[in-house]
Amino acid sequence: MADVLEKSVPTEESLIEKIAEKIHDHDSSSSSESEHEKPDSPSALKAKIYRLFGREKPVHKVLGGGLPADVFLWRDKKLSAAVLGVATAIWVLFELVEYHFLSLVCHILIFALAVLFLLSNAHAFMKKSPPKIPEIHIKEEHFLLIASALRNELNQAFVILRSIALGRDLKKFLMVVFGLWIISVVGNWFNFLTLVYICFVVLHTVPMLYEKHEDKVDPVAEKTLKELKKHYMVFDEKVLSKIPVASLKAKLG
């Protein structure tokens, strides 16, 4: 009888352990399900907010990342200010002072060569070591990478222009014509150098301001784009849909 009781005790203990394990598994599964049913975290909700131009990446990555993005977003204020100052000095020299580019390059080279020549020959009298002038070699790979990137961009532009010229996309045709017209109007206001300088200043100010106030700008941009889409739908219904594009394509085909 004692043996039977001794055998029943461990069996009962094993049954209790199995029941406890099942209860523990059930609790863990229910807790995991409850975690899945929890509302999205603030970061997830923030990711679902509309962003300008439908972007999903931060502004720093949109600008290409690295040092150029740091300069445009003023991550290094001294470097950004120096770059903007140099660009402003160049614009003042060429536009306001009316200094010519070729003259500037020649004067800089004359000054640099004269200083290096004097230092190289006067080191014996000054009892100093001659200046160390590094050897500069431009690698062929850099030119090939730039040429390849430029070729890809030009080919893509030619594909878009060809599709527009064939009359396949009326919306894209109107957008390109409107964009070229805007550029021609702005070109009448400024010369090329001033226009480049204005674009440079815009790149140094607008992305930085947008990154600081993107939570305020994006809702306004969303409303504006919705209104523009409504106006475009009305214009498409009343004007664009009545243009016999299909018949023109059939004749051209």
Please describe what this structure looks like.
This protein has helices at residues 2-37, 42-47, 59-62, 66-72, 77-96, 101-126, 140-165, 170-189, 192-212, 214-238, 245-252. With 253 residues, it is an all-alpha fold. Helix 5 (77-96) packs antiparallel against helix 9 (192-212). The model is unreliable at 1-13 and 26-47 (pLDDT under 50).
List keywords for this structure.
mainly alpha, 11 helices, 0% strand, elongated, endoplasmic reticulum, Reticulon-like protein
Strand content: under 5%
User: What shape does the CA trace take?
Assistant: elongated
Compute the separation of the termini in Å: 102 Å
Total strands: 0
- Runs in which pLDDT lies below 50 for 5 or more consecutive residues are 1-13, 26-47
Helix coverage percent: over 70%
Give me the number of helical elements.
Answer: 11
Provide the succession of SSEs: HHHHHHHHHHH
Mean pLDDT across the residues is 75
Biggest sheet layout: none
Rg from Cα: 34 Å
